[in-house]
Amino acid sequence: MKMSHYGTYWVSFFKGVILVLLILALTGCSIGGEKKIKIFSVEKPREKLNYEMPTPLQMEEIKWIIITSENADEVFKRLEDAGIDPVLFGITDKDYQVLARNFAQIRQKLQETNNLLEEYKKYYEDSGNTQ
Amino acid sequence: MIFAVLLITGIAGAGMYVMKLRADNATLKANQIKLETAVAEQTKVLEQQKKDFTAIMESNKKLNALINTFKKDLDDLDKRFTKKKRDIGKLALERTSSVERVINSGSKNAARCIELASGAEHTEEELKATLKSEINPECPALANPNYVHHE
Is the CB of residue B111 less than 8 Å away from at least one CB of chain A? Predict the structure, then answer.
């Protein structure tokens, strides 16, 4: 049977369609594919907390006066002569020891806190532990 | 005709398969590089952890030593008041002016200790002090780092 010109054309067209469909079936539509998303991660170190160390204290001098029953008049007179109100805020010898001890403990706490602060600073800033 | 179609399809399929294999190979290579990088990073992290641990131990040691000096300083302070059954009140009655002088000097030294504890710089004299007569007896460990205490 002889095919017409149009018949041959359509057969060729269908062959082409079948071929394309076969290729698509084999490749699973992977020709071209989807574009891959590239994700970049850039490590940015944490900003440093650059506080300056606290300003050291400057203590003012105080003068202790020892007053006994024997020298009381002399002490008060001396104060009056110097233009100072003749009044004293007193503590006993035992309380003086307690005051000295309390003072020492406050100083130690201050030193401990300052040292801790320095150690933290050293650890997090010198060794690169910025997080 | 069918044979020709199958042949072309087969060749195309084989071509695609080779391309897939190449892509897989590239992925595997990339994975290998990533794994090697991860191993290198892990080694780096371990090294850093080791360094951190040493730094923490060192810091702990330093702070413990400091706390021990605190205890000693307080004990020394108590001793100054009570050594050989000393009674500071009685002493003040007997030698008022000399005790007053000692207390004022002690108060000045204690104030200097506070300044140093708050971060003040040491003076040349404080740094050079190696004798008992030169030190600040209120806080020798803090004020005179070069002074070695002998029991």
Answer: yes
The answer to whether B91 and B80 are in contact (CB under 8 A) is: no
Single pTM value for the model: 0.67
Contact B100 A66 (CB under 8 A): yes
Are B96 and A68 an interchain contact pair (Cβ–Cβ within 8 Å)? yes
Q: What residues of B are in contact with residue A112 (Cβ under 8 Å)?
A: 63, 66-67, 70
**CB of B77 within 8 Å of any CB in chain A?**
yes
| B30–chain A Cβ distance below 8 A for any pair | no
Burial A105-124 (b: 16+ CB within 10 A, else e): eebbebbeebbeeebeeeee
Torsion angle (degrees, nearest 10) of CA A64, A70, A71, A72: 80
CA B27 to chain centre: 45
pLDDT digits (tens, 9 = 90+) for A77-117: 999 999 999 999 999 999 999 999 999 999 999 999 989 98
pLDDT for A25-67, tens place per residue? Answer: 887 656 565 667 788 888 888 787 778 888 999 999 999 999 9
- Binary contact (A30, B16; C-beta < 8 A): yes
Kindly state the average pLDDT of the residues B123-127.
94
The per-residue pLDDT for B127 is 94
